[in-house]
Structures are given as structure tokens and as C-alpha cells.
Design a protein that fits this description.
Length: about 240
């Protein structure tokens, strides 16, 4: 068989195959799903809640893996123990370290570290994707922006709840060492979780807002420090 005959046969096969593909594409596609059935939504409220829980756990674990966080915890404990030693002295007189005196001594130093943790990790959770150039992919994920934002807020506040409990424990341990066993749990809870915790939530919201608006992390730190200093100056008695 000649070369011309082989070439013609090959071209004929290609032409026939191309025609078969055109005919297959032209035929209507029959779906196995009945046309009258409604389309099922993939992202339901349950899915959104599952995303929120998953992101909150992930960001909470990121905070616990940070070395600066544990350094702040150690400082919080050290300053709390140091200040708690002076709860039993009023006007140079030795008194029992009652709960309200202990709360004043321990909470005074703890509040500063609680606000530092709040501002620091609110910024870290926002800038983590930006620093790794993952923010473009992260923003394109099939997820509500409110879910992403609330997971950051929740992670920081869970840490703050734990640190407030640690502050309460420090006060009670110092009272026990001093021989005072009349703990007022409701007073601890009211002062730490009803009075102090809302202040921390407000500062965290402010930190998240500032770090979202500004384009530089350290500029955001400067704004937060300035706001904290101005607030402390306004609260000083005249």
C-alpha cells in the first residue's frame, strides 16, 4: 500500500472522529435529577455555624502557640502575686486580705496585661493572612465576612475569660496563704466579669477596627497606645 493511501486513510479516520464528537455535543444532555425538584442550598446556617466554630478553634490554638502570649501570662502572674502581698496592709496597718482588697491589688496589675493581650492578638489574627500573602485566597473563600470577623473576636475573648479566671485564682491562693478563707466568689465574679470584662471587649473591638482601617500594623499599635494613654489621663482625679 502506498504512502498516499495510508495518509488518506488516517485523515479519513480523524474526520470521522471529529464528526462523531460534533454529533455527541449537539445531542441534548438528559439529567438524572427531576426538573421539578428545588435546588438544595449548600451553605446553610448550620454550615455557617460550623465554619465559625472551626475558625474560632483554629485562631485560639494560634494564640496559645505564640511565645509572646505565654511571656505576658508569666508577667501577669508575677505582678499579681507581688501586688497581692500588699492587700493585707492598709495605712501601714496589717489587716486581713479580704476579697475586695485582694481584687483591687490583683486586678490593678492584671488589667494592663489583659489589654496588651487583647490589642496584640487582635492585630496578629488580622495580619496573619496579610503577612503570608494569603489574604487574597482567604477573602475568596465561600464564607461570610461576619463569620470570619466574629471568629477573631471570639478567640481573643475566650483567652481573656481564661486570664480573668487565672487572676481570680491568684487572689484566692494569696488569701489562702495568708490564712484567710472567707472567699467571696460573687464579688470576684462581679468585679472581674461584669465590670472589667466589658471594658476588655470594647478595647478588643477598637483594636480590630483600627487594624482593619490602617495599612500598617505598627501604626495601629501606636493608635491603640495613644487611646489607652488618653483614657488613663482622663480618668485621673483632678
Amino acid at each position: 500500500m502506498s504512502v498516499e493511501a495510508l495518509t488518506g486513510r488516517s485523515q479519513g479516520r480523524r474526520t470521522a472522529k471529529a464528526k462523531e464528537q460534533e454529533l455527541a455535543e449537539a445531542q441534548p444532555v438528559h439529567s438524572l435529577v427531576p426538573a421539578g425538584l428545588p435546588v438544595r442550598q449548600v451553605f446553610t446556617p448550620a454550615t455557617t455555624f460550623a465554619q465559625y466554630l472551626s475558625l474560632s478553634r483554629l485562631r485560639l490554638s494560634n494564640i496559645f502557640r505564640d511565645i509572646p502570649f505565654w511571656a505576658l501570662v508569666v508577667l501577669l502572674i508575677a505582678f499579681g502575686v507581688n501586688n497581692g502581698q500588699f492587700a493585707g496592709r492598709v495605712a501601714e496597718q496589717n489587716v486581713w486580705p479580704v476579697s475586695y482588697l485582694m481584687i483591687q491589688s490583683v486586678e490593678g496589675s492584671a488589667l494592663l496585661f489583659l489589654l496588651i493581650v487583647s490589642g496584640l492578638h487582635a492585630a496578629e489574627l488580622l495580619w496573619r493572612e496579610r503577612d503570608t500573602y494569603f489574604d487574597g485566597i482567604h477573602d475568596a473563600l465561600p464564607m461570610r465576612e461576619s463569620t470570619d470577623w466574629l471568629s477573631r473576636l471570639t478567640a481573643v475573648q475566650v483567652v481573656e475569660v481564661i486570664l480573668l479566671a487565672l487572676t481570680m485564682l491568684i487572689g484566692m491562693v494569696i488569701q489562702t496563704i495568708a490564712g484567710y478563707y472567707h472567699y467571696k466568689f460573687l464579688l470576684y465574679f462581679k468585679d472581674l466579669y461584669v465590670v472589667t470584662f466589658p471594658q476588655i471587649i470594647g478595647f478588643t473591638l477598637f483594636a480590630l477596627f483600627v487594624q482593619t482601617v490602617v495599612s500598617n500594623r505598627f501604626a495601629g499599635y501606636g493608635i491603640m497606645i495613644g487611646a489607652f494613654v488618653l483614657n488613663e489621663m482622663s480618668n485621673q482625679p483632678k
